[in-house]
Design goal:
alpha/beta, Aspartate Aminotransferase, domain 1, Aspartate Aminotransferase, domain 2, two-stranded parallel sheet, 15 helices, 11 strands, globular, binds pyridoxal-5'-phosphate
Length: 385
């Protein structure tokens, strides 16, 4: 046992020396193995992930109260088996959990790398058939992805005067050549939520003419998820696809798990189009926290508390905002959004800049309460109130 594997040894001894050292490791006693393990380079410093030191990160609709302890423990245990591709049984376990909660069959569920991957795959499937009809303002990243590849175009229907989605306008824009309709409820960046009675009847009408995708990324944060979701339309056999994510209520944006609920036939098409397979760590985390009610209640509670702080600040300042049921608020500060973003950045507070030509509208996400509090304190100063 003359070898001790160090970074320097690998660099100076070259590949042969390193190979010899590794060979020695594989035949060593557990004690020697442990020693060799200790000689590997330490993991990358944590500041590579998450917000920089002192930065209030309130721009990306993340939920810093996750991942749950149950998910973290599952990630660490599953990482020990990271040498292996994720077992089909693990994916099926997650599919079954999701299917069970929603009252659908497991084959109606597709697990994806965040809901973004699902939405991109859906845009690639339906985009080539014809335009994606959507509200003027929605989470358009995945439709743009397909559009940038020349595989889709977006027909944007203006919002109502109250910044609501114009469902009648969207339905009227559907033609036999439409690729699909894409909706987002609650919508991003407005944060507005359409009640279930309204969206379900609108979507049922549209789905008789074309495929309708309802992106429900934020729905678990709303006051009454069951009353709002369009999952019942899938169960009624309508041509509807629901997308959901573990990035919001579960606070796992960096872990990357999302899923779709649709007919089994549509699910098969989505499964055939997605490009990656679920990592073992993400799958384990999702299984562990999906029904972690204590964490879900805690997570939602923190987000609601942050939202109330922001709303109270905006009310005190008399600034207009849209009533949100999500982890972000769309508001007017009296300054152009990009100017407010710059001014906040100078205070090490990161918020969203302008969307399209919606110059007066800024979006702030609910981060850690102390960061939300920094935003609330900085806002009056920055707008000269
Ligand atoms: C409305 C909406 N849908 C989907 C996503 C994609 O999220 P993820 O890919 O992390 O599931 C986001 C991300 O912010 C979003 O705002």
């Amino acid at each position: 046992m003359g070898y001790r594997l160090t970074r320097r040894g690998i660099l100076s001894g070259g590949a042969m020396g390193a190979a010899a050292s590794l060979a020695a490791c594989t035949t060593s006693s557990p004690a020697a193995l442990a020693e060799a393990k200790g000689a590997f380079p330490p993991s990358a410093p944590l500041p590579l992930f998450g917000p920089a030191e002192g930065q209030a990160l309130l721009s990306r609709n993340e939920n810093p109260y996750g991942p749950s302890p149950s998910a973290l423990s599952a990630i660490s245990k599953s990482a020990e088996k990271g040498a292996y591709y994720t077992n089909a049984e693990a994916i099926q376990t997650l599919m079954a959990l999701i299917a069970d909660r929603h009252g659908v069959a497991p084959e109606q569920v597709v697990i994806t790398t965040g809901s973004g991957e699902a939405l991109s795959a859906i845009a690639l499937i339906y985009g080539p058939k014809g335009p994606i009809v959507a509200p003027r303002l929605f989470w358009d990243t995945t439709s743009l992805y397909a559009a940038n590849l020349g595989m889709a175009s977006i027909t944007r229907i203006p919002l109502t005067d109250g910044m609501e989605v114009d469902y009648a306008g969207i339905e009227a824009a559907i033609t036999p050549g439409t690729g699909m309709v894409q909706l987002c409820n609650p919508n991003n960046p407005t944060g507005l939520t359409t009640p279930g009675t309204i969206i379900r009847s609108a979507v049922a009408g549209m789905a008789a003419k074309t495929t309708v995708v309802v992106d429900e990324a934020y729905i678990e944060l709303t006051d009454d998820e069951a009353a709002i979701t369009c999952v019942p339309l899938v169960k009624e056999g309508k041509d509807v696809i629901i997308t959901r994510t573990f990035s919001k209520i579960y606070g796992m944006a960096g872990i990357r798990v999302g899923y779709t609920i649709s007919s089994a036939e549509t699910a098969a098409k989505i499964r055939a189009t997605v490009m990656s397979s679920a990592p073992c760590t993400s799958t384990a985390a999702a299984i562990a926290c999906y029904n972690d009610e204590a964490f879900i209640t805690y997570s939602k509670g923190k987000i609601v508390e942050g939202r109330q702080m922001v709303e109270a600040t905006l009310d005190t300042l008399g600034l207009p905002y849209l009533k949100s049921q999500t982890n972000f608020v769309y508001f007017q500060s009296g300054k152009p959004a990009n100017d407010l973003q710059k001014a906040m950045a100078a205070e090490k507070i990161s918020i969203r800049g302008q969307y399209m030509d919606y110059t007066p509208w800024s979006r702030v996400s609910m981060g850690k309460l102390e960061d939300v509090s920094r935003f609330c304190k900085a806002l009056p100063k920055l707008i000269g109130a």
